[in-house]
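Field reference: sequence -> structure
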Amino acid sequence: MYNGRKTHQIGVSSFDVTFDRDNRDQVVFFVTESDAVINLPHPCGFQAQILVKKMSNSGTVTVQAPEGITIDGNSNYTLSEQFKFVELLSAGDDSWAVVGY
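Structure field:
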């Protein structure tokens, strides 16, 4: 169960996700920049749910895992179509799991 939902509009080409790992919130990022990289934190101890949604009709949004960490076995996850999203949860000490797209 999550405590609350926080939303952020991202209008820059690179953004580092940083906030309290133990807050049990759902955090939604609406990316309005046409080409952007969203840098995830290390998943260890992370209890929030992260959702990244691409709002622009052009470009690519790349959700990037830290070095040595994977997102369902890959180093990143790419959103190339408008209004597409990816929903992520920590899958332990060394990976993020895609739980919705």
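Note: The chain has one domain: 5-100.
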